Amino acid sequence: MGITKHRECRVCGSEDPITLHNLWYRGMYGQLCTACVLAHHPASFCPICFDVYDDTKLPPPHLRVMCLRCPSVAHLSCVYSLPSSSSSSSSTSFHCPQCSIPNFTFFNLNGGIIQKGNVITKDLAKQLVAAAKIASMSLHKAAAIARENAEKRATEAVMARKRAKEALDKVAFLMLKEAEEDSRSSSNL
């Protein structure tokens, strides 16, 4: 009978199975909760609308703004749509929610574990989906790197096998040549 492994977030220790995501994080495969995925990947999504950026989806420089304290990148249109923003405010003074709100946490359910009676709001659902997309992208990148490394190792193995065969052929040739020379020298005696 196998031992079941305890599932929890590698960062905060959350044990809520609904909010845990499998991903490649800091060089290791593991699980992070939705809040920690978002908190530790601030440049991967807009912290206001939770649109996830992939390598080709990052908004152009004139349509994005970066937080002054962290690498969080928001759509300029999202920043200006916030109630506290005005058309005269400068985009250079943007601070993401994580940096501007004391004790801020993503995916805050006021209790940690999703139970009967907790409501997943549209905003929380967007956060959950964003974290799932980030986790998926993380695993796809890790798989691509693993595939590339495996192909490189396979190529190296083929080359090593070829060099070993050439070395064995050379040894066999030298042994045959030595045997012929011994044969000639014994027949000359």
UniProtKB/TrEMBL annotation:
GO terms for molecular function: zinc ion binding. InterPro entries: Znf_FYVE_PHD (IPR011011), Znf_RING (IPR001841), Znf_RING/FYVE/PHD (IPR013083). It comes from the Eukaryota. Residues 46-100 form the RING-type domain. Keywords: Metal-binding, Zinc, Zinc-finger. SUPFAM superfamilies: FYVE/PHD zinc finger (SSF57903). This is PHD finger family protein. It comes from Abeliophyllum distichum.
